[in-house]
Amino acid sequence: MHIQELRVLLALEPTWTVSINGREFLQFPSSEIQFHNESVRIGRHVRILLQIEWLRSNVVRLQTRHRSTSRREILTFFPGNQLPGVIDLRRRRRLFQSQIKRALAAHFRLREPIQEILHSDKLRGIGGAYPRFVSGNRAAIAVDPEESAPVIDGIMRAAILWSDFINRRISVIVPAQRKQTIVNRLHDMPGIQSGLDWLQWNGSSIAPLEMDIGQPETHVHEIYPLHVEEEVARVCSLAPEHLQAVPNIASRAVSIRLRGLEVARVAEGGTSYPMGEPLLPVIESIVRDRRFGSRHPLARAYEERWLESNLIRQINDLLPVRGECIYPQVPSFVEGERNIIDLLTVTPGGRLVVVEIKASPDPELPFQAFDYWQAVERHRRSGDFQAKGYFNGMKIQDWPALLVVVAPLLSFHKTFDRLVTALPRELPLVQVGINQTWKREIKILRRQGTLS
């Protein structure tokens, strides 16, 4: 059994949900899950470890038994504090569909029968989270306020794709309390704003979408000078061909990463080791398992972080930017869920460059990249980057930031080109398609747009 691999996996998430025999579900911080020899401690409970089974790259099942009895337990570890509940999900979506159907009939005073559609339309890229309705010459699409933030924001994509083949005017119904991202996009997308009817749902009735709301809250952390060069050099010297030092500005530290995974964090108050120490065995384990061609779960987990690491290492071979001026996740979103990696850098001439990275197909990539570009533009126009110590000694040009989207060529979702046409024409967008074997070395296969 590979206990060290479990330690590495559990260090990647702050919280884990543990299923006990598939019935009881408990949440534990990763610090309360410990392995010692052939036993596992979860909170106050200690069990003898019998077998490890990897269900997915970040989901693992342990067969255990009590220390004092022969009674066995199956413990399944899920990352985070939410579980997939297919049955409850379907029930909730059906209930919401019924509520919206009644509200639509009242809002539009419909007398004709309303056709309901809830199934996923994989051919056209419309998920089952978006109930659709057709009545006469009207059509409507909605999303439940209880869905996750990416699903709620994804209704814009679903509505655009549905409009391509349904010969009716579409009303888009968004949650009144969770509409900020969509409204923020619409302010810069007048064609989409006028091409669809935008409504909001307050839990009991439907009304026109209110567009007068504030901007999404984002933050640019100030860069503080750190005097940790010697300690960073010492840690990196353990495996200089593998370890990479990346600024962690929000934590006022330097993150030491191995193929995207943080193995050490150096701050002025000391050095911490998220995956445990001594560090050399951790490094050897990750190098062995997280490599090109490996079938180990670690070779498939958190691939965006790995791609980000390789991209930073090869940045000057791939893009005409200042390789010494690369900042991950700047600015940061105060609320909301994001599943793509963001880098902020600058061209030699002083133009900001936003790099969005995705290792697998994601239909939301064009709009999520646009969200981040909007945030960068707000802070650029306000002068926040240089005021907080970024790009020291450089003059940032008063030009819109360039948006560069990087993904394996075959991993651009089939709807990518269609959704890009919905973005503002003046958006300076560059699409970079790389090779599928990027874990070994990144090569550009296709580039659309100009970096200048």
Topology:
Elements: H1 3-10, E1 15-20, E2 24-29, E3 33-36, E4 39-42, E5 45-56, E6 59-66, E7 72-79, H2 86-108, E8 115-117, E9 132-135, E10 138-142, H3 149-153, H4 155-163, E11 169-175, H5 180-187, H6 190-195, E12 197-201, E13 206-208, E14 218-219, H7 229-236, E15 243-248, E16 253-258, E17 261-267, E18 270-272, H8 279-289, H9 303-318, E19 327-328, E20 332-333, E21 341-346, E22 352-357, H10 365-382, H11 384-387, E23 402-408, H12 416-420, E24 429-434, E25 444-448
Parallel strand pairs: 10-11, 11-12, 22-23, 23-24
Antiparallel strand pairs: 1-2, 1-7, 3-4, 4-5, 5-6, 6-7, 8-9, 9-10, 12-13, 14-20, 15-16, 16-17, 17-18, 19-21, 21-22, 24-25
Notable characteristics:
globular, single chain, six-stranded mixed β-sheet, 27% helix, 3 domains, 452 residues
Structure summarized in a few sentences:
By secondary structure, the protein is of the alpha+beta class. Helix content is 27%, strand content 29%.
Structure description:
With 452 residues, the chain is an alpha+beta fold. The chain folds into 3 domains: 3-79, no CATH class; 86-208; 229-448, no CATH class. 27% of the residues lie in helices and 29% in strands. The strands form 5 sheets. Strands 2-1-7-6-5-4-3 form a 7-stranded antiparallel β-sheet, covered by helices on one side. A hairpin with a 2-residue loop joins β9 and β10 (138-142). The longest helix is centred in the N-terminal third of the chain and has 23 residues, at 86-108. It starts with a helix and ends with a strand.
